[in-house]
Amino acid sequence: MNNRLNKHGFTLVELLVAVALIASILCMVYGSYFATSKSAQTCKGIIAASQQGRKTLEQMARQIRCSYAPADTNYTEAEPVVPGSKQTIQRGMILEEDICYFNGNSASPRGEILHFVTTNRSIGEKQPADGLFDVTYKFDKRASLLLLSQGEFTGTSQKPGERDFQPIGEGVKSVELTFFDGEKWLRSWDFKDKKKLPSAVRIEIGCEDENNRRYHYATVADISCQKNRERARTEKLVSANN
User: Is the Cβ–Cβ distance between 202 and 220 less than 8 Å?
Assistant: First the structure.
């Protein structure tokens, strides 16, 4: 009788072997799922960082390519304004101290690395599609943010305190700008000093994703209208300080 029952049951060893096999299979399945999930998250982070970096780079390059500075005919001939005199400023006269058509410096102490006037507005901005726009890019290194301020250009530059900045790039660790004057690359550019726009701007952006992986993006934006505005004659720039 006992022998007959033993033929239809399982020994303890058999049960242990079965449990071990099931546990091994579950471990392999879970390990494969975990590796696949981790790989998918990594790929997702890489794609998100790549899309953001490229989008930010393309936006900056697009606006820089459309940088604007007035031609010679846009300046009004006039005698210098003498402080304290009764001489009035004629209509159409541009004050040199109020105009800032293109300034750039990656090492700006306030973080405002690039300021210029452009005919290209940022996509998504609720502003007219045509006209001139006063654009400022600011890099907040502590917060790893790249910010943009944009408004209609009214003939004078906005003061720093009047600018409303909106974040356009997160996880940005570095922004390097260099400016080509036709012969060499420079670390900064001042329109008042150069009296013209740069021929091209090289943009380099370093980003970091949530897994602390670093990515580097770079491009060169040629300024198409620079050839037509090579010279902005200083004698037509009227300053109240002269």
Answer: yes
Q: Beta strands 133-140 and 200-208: pairing type?
A: unpaired
Helix (H, G, I), strand (E, B) or coil at 99: coil
What is the C-alpha to C-alpha distance for residues 124 and 203, in angstroms, rounded to an integer? Answer: 22
Of residues 172 and 28, more confidently modeled:
172
Do the beta carbons of residue 66 and residue 129 sit within 8 Å?
Answer: no
Q: What is the dihedral of CA 155, 157, 161, 167, to 10 degrees?
A: 100
Averaged confidence pLDDT in the chain: 75
pLDDT over 70 (residue 40): no
Helices (H), the chain: 2-7, 12-65, 191-194
Contacts with 202 (C-beta within 8 Å, 6 or more apart), sequence order: 176, 177, 178, 179, 180, 185, 218, 219, 220, 221
